[in-house]
């Protein structure tokens, strides 16, 4: 049995999800007539109280499309110094949209409306015009932590007053929604656009949704096409998304409980220096200096437990629907014996 904690992207579609996919009615989504894609997009937009949605191949693409649509180079994006759009999208902000980035060093990926205010450039030809603020909830590199919705609302109010759109990289937003017990529409209200990944904790093999106004999604569809993200009989994959939205949300609390259980075992181990507070399904801990991260990862891999390093002696474990009772039992016993 392999216990794969590298990411929640490793989830395999369940038999039920696969059967649902096989029954999907298909069309040509580039021509706009795949009924299953239309159904998924409509359902997603409704859930979040927005007008429209667009099904895309990846979360990188939904984020990059959003940045492109909201901005017009030259200009600047404000985001956290831990954000995925800055670290892990291959420099796409510069490559696709020609923008500079203003990084805010906040609290594990979160910052305040005052931080945003300080980083909005004055209207002066020397400065790149601030054209977008982007948040990430939950924040991956911040250890799956959740934003305080009141602070998000304050940032949104400031952005509106300044005429700057607010985007959410909500790759794992359902983890935040479940952990905070917040209503989906209330959660989504502050944002002009949202990217939601179906291929992470929600368990789909592929796919992300970009959600926003009719006008925004109309423009996003053009950018998706030019990025090569138009897919044809893709209702097959959209069906997995419909299934996931109907079946795989409430169970995310199991993943959160499992991450907390792992942290509880790790906290007493001599090789652990510190553990980031566990709020959702991501657990980041730091090893003591006498244990090398690469050696630790290898020793786990020798016992069929897979994890990734996050630099600076940090290790990340991510729980997901592939980590059930059996996997947890084995994992906790291996960790306890380390
Ligand atoms: C916070 C966050 N945003 C965006 C993405 C990008 O998603 P994808 O791998 O589908 O491009 C990821 C992927 O891990 C992520 O963790």
Question: What key phrases describe this protein's structure?
Answer:
Aspartate Aminotransferase, domain 2, Aspartate Aminotransferase, domain 1, globular, four-stranded antiparallel β-sheet, alpha/beta, 14 helices, binds pyridoxal-5'-phosphate, seven-stranded mixed β-sheet, 338 residues
Describe the 3D structure.
This protein is α/β, with parallel strands linked by helices and 338 residues long. It has two domains: 3-8 and 251-337, Aspartate Aminotransferase, domain 1 (Alpha-Beta Complex), CATH 3.90.1150; 13-247, 3-Layer(aba) Sandwich (Aspartate Aminotransferase, domain 2), CATH 3.40.640. 41% of the residues lie in helices and 18% in strands. It has 14 helices and 13 strands. The strands form three sheets. A seven-stranded mixed sheet has the order 2-8-7-6-5-3-4, with helices on both faces. Strands 9-10-13-12 form a four-stranded antiparallel sheet, with helices on one face. β12 and β13 (314-318) form a beta hairpin. α1 (15-22) crosses α11, α6 packs parallel to α7 (149-162) and α12 (252-266) runs parallel beside α14. The protein is globular and about 55 Å long. The mean pLDDT is 97. The structure holds pyridoxal-5'-phosphate (PLP). Pyridoxal-5'-phosphate binds at residues 9, 58-60, 63, 84, 136, 140, 169, 171, 197, 199, 208. Pyridoxal-5'-phosphate is lined by residues 9, 58-60, 63, 84, 136, 140, 169, 171, 197, 199, 208.
């Amino acid at each position: 049995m392999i216990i794969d904690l590298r990411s929640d992207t490793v989830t395999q579609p369940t038999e039920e999800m696969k059967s649902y996919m096989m029954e999907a009615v298909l069309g040509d989504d580039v021509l706009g007539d795949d009924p299953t894609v239309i159904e998924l997009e409509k359902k997603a937009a409704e859930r979040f109280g927005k007008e429209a949605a667009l099904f895309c191949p990846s979360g990188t693409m939904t984020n990059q499309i959003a940045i492109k649509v909201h901005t017009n180079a030259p200009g600047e994006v404000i985001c956290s110094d831990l954000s995925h759009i800055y670290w892990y999208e291959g420099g796409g902000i510069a490559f696709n949209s020609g923008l500079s980035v203003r990084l805010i060093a906040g609290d594990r990926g979160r910052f305040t409306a005052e931080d945003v205010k300080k980083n909005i450039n004055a209207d002066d030809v020397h400065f790149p015009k601030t054209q977008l603020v982007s948040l990430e909830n939950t924040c991956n590199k911040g250890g799956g932590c959740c934003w305080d919705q009141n602070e998000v609302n304050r940032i949104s109010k400031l952005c509106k007053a300044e005429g700057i759109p607010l985007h959410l990289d909500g790759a794992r937003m359902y983890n935040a929604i479940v952990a905070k017990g917040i209503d989906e529409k209330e959660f989504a209200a502050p944002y002009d656009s949202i990217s939601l990944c179906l291929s992470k904790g929600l368990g789909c093999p592929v796919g992300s949704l970009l959600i926003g106004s009719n006008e925004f999604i109309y423009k996003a569809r053009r950018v998706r096409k030019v990025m090569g993200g138009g897919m044809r009989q893709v209702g097959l994959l959209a069906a997995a998304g419909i299934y996931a939205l109907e079946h795989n949300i409430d169970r995310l609390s199991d993943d959160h409980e499992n991450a907390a259980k792992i942290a509880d075992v790790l906290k007493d181990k001599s090789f652990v220096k510190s553990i980031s507070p566990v709020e959702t399904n991501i657990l980041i801990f730091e090893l003591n200096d006498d244990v090398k991260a690469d050696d630790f990862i290898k020793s786990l891999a020798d016992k069929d437990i897979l994890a990734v390093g996050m630099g600076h002696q940090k290790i990340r474990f991510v729980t997901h629907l592939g980590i059930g009772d059996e996997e947890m039992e084995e994992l906790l016993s291996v960790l306890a014996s380390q």
